[in-house]
């Protein structure tokens, strides 16, 4: 289990009004905003805490196999964020340099939350 505590978003402005309940949805502004379907009764720059769960299963053949080449082989399957929990996002209305405003995965202290959806990793190791 992993926990990322709540924090204030590093953006000082509130999101566009399309995220506010009762206004036209963000998807109505064009296909580039179609992924932003949620609307909220109030808008805040508080990013809620987040729990994610990982699962890891492994097996090592050890010295048991008769064939020397099959000894000490390790197999490891890891599923990170097994429930596919999505990261909270923040908003940047007036980015520096005149770029277009957007919503993005929130960061704390300028570092990524490290949540990229469900990730599968399979590792094979061999000790000689």
Write structural notes for this entry.
With 128 residues, the protein is mostly beta strands. It has one domain. The chain contains no helices and 11 strands. 5% of the residues are buried.
| Helix-and-strand structural type | mainly beta
Total domain units: 1
The percent range for strand residues is: 25-35%
Q: How far apart lie the N and C ends?
A: 34 Å
Radius of gyration: 22 Å
Could you tell me the mean pLDDT?
A: 77
Count, helices: 0
Major β-sheet annotation: 3 strands, antiparallel
Q: Strand sequence of the main sheet, in spatial order? A: 5-6-11
Q: What is the strand tally? A: 11
The gross shape turns out to be elongated
Summarize the structure.
The chain is an all-beta fold. Helix content is 0%, strand content 34%. A 3-stranded antiparallel beta sheet has the order 5-6-11, with no helix packed on it. Strands 1-4 form a two-stranded antiparallel sheet. It has a two-stranded antiparallel ribbon with strand order 2-3.
Which helices and strands occur, and which strands form pairs?
Blueprint: E1 2-4, E2 7-8, E3 46-47, E4 50-52, E5 55-60, E6 73-80, E7 89-92, E8 102-105, E9 107-108, E10 111-112, E11 119-126
Antiparallel strand pairs: 1-4, 2-3, 5-6, 6-11, 7-8, 9-10
């Amino acid at each position: 289990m992993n926990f990322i505590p709540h924090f204030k978003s590093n953006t000082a402005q509130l999101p566009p009004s399309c995220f506010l309940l009762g206004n036209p949805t963000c998807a109505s502004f064009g296909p580039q905003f179609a992924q932003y379907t949620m609307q909220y009764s109030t808008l805040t720059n508080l990013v809620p805490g987040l729990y994610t769960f990982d699962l890891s299963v492994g097996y090592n053949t050890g010295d048991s196999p008769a064939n020397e080449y099959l000894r000490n082989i390790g197999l490891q399957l890891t599923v990170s964020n097994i429930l596919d929990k999505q990261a909270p996002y923040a908003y940047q209305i007036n980015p520096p340099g005149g770029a277009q405003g957007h919503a993005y995965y929130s960061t704390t202290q300028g570092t990524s939350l490290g949540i990229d959806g469900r990730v599968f990793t399979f590792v094979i190791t061999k000790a000689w």
